[in-house]
Amino acid sequence: MSETYPYEYYVDIVTKRYFDGVDNKRLDQILDCFHADAVLKEMTSDTTHAGRDTGIKGMFERLIVDNDRVWHGNFVHTVDVEGEAICSQFSVEVEATALRLGTLRYENCNRFYLKDGKFTEVFVYMSGQNLLT
Fold first, then answer.
1. Which of 4, 14, 25, 78 shows the smallest number of beta carbons within 10 Å?
2. Does residue 15 sit within a domain?
3. Residue 85: beta bridge partners?
4. Which residue range(s) make up the domain with 85?
5. How far lies 60's CA from each of 9, 20, 23, 51, in Å?
């Protein structure tokens, strides 16, 4: 049976570890949130990235290189401690000058499933163009 983590743990891993890593382009910090066999699926475009050190890592490497700035904020969380899950709604701003897209704004929602304190599955619902290719 998995260890039980408090409500605050789920908010912390999502905001202070995962999204902080994305916003500050810290790949190791991002990947440390995932189990080795984790899956991240961008639901809106049906794109799947499997494996922390392969598919997920490659996706974040491209996101970091392709975008000058990424910011996540205005979080609203719903935590299911017993189910080891958290649903997070948030705003996103991306400056994608390398892709000649300018500044993009999104209102997104992610569903994170955890085991032993790390992500096993992440489901991403994006309001605009999929940048997680």
1. 4
2. yes
3. 80, 113
4. 7-125
5. 23, 13, 11, 12
- pLDDT 10s digits, 22-56: 999 999 999 999 999 999 999 988 999 999 999 99
Cross-sheet strand order for the sheet of 103-115: 47-50, 34-42, 118-125, 103-115, 85-95, 69-80
* Residues ≥6 apart with Cβ < 8 Å to 15: 72, 75, 88
Please say if the pLDDT value at position 133 is more than 90. no
Domain assignment present for residue 2? The answer is no
We report the CATH number of the domain holding residue 95 as 3.10.450.50
| CA gap 85, 44 in Å, rounded | 20
Take residue 55 and report the two structure tokens written for it.
């598919």
**Count of all residues that appear for the chain in the document:** 133
